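Reply to dn_fold:

You asked what the input looked like. This is it:
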Amino acid sequence: MTAQDRRALVVRGGWPGHAPEESTELFVPYLMDAGYDVTLESSLEAYADTDFMAGLDLIVQSWTMGEILPDEMRGLRGAVANGTGFAGWHGGIVDSFRLATDYLQMMGGQFAAHAHDLLDHTIDIVPEHADHPIVQGISSISLHSEQYWVLTDPYNEVLATTTIVPQEGDPWHEPIVVPSVWTRRWGAGKIFVCAAGHQLADLEKPEIRTIVERGLLWASR
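and this is what came back:
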């Protein structure tokens, strides 16, 4: 298979506050320049088309909250398990389909809370993974944005973390370190998650944009 044969599906919708169309448009030209034939969808129905899904090398999802039908969930899980990459950022991938436990299991992480509103914080590359191709050459990233408190499991390969520091009145009593960037193997497929990306400005930040672009290609079949 040549680069020009690769196919990507970009699925965008759900809660509009995360600008699913505008945010994905930041990366569609990048995928096209990388040789992908890109299909854009504003519904989840494509997930249920098993023949279509079998021909994909990469799925980029930006779909915050919402619900997914059982046949759509089966189609998505089956495609990833069979080798289709799955990638995204922020609520578009880790705050999707809160009631779909099959989805949560596959992702290995779920948004739990905004510990605080928009605030200054850092994303720190995990030292033992500093040479991973997704984060290589990047160190600490400073953001003024949402800081996701995520619930995760130990099957993830965590490439970057953020530390949620308690403020006066908070019910937790010590800093909490949570994943910000992780990868995950699922069957023959690969999953990439970047928890940052609440605002377009976050995704336009050079370090975040580089991590996302690299993550998309890393996850691809």
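Residues 43 and 159 are 31 Å apart (CA to CA).
Hope that clears it up.
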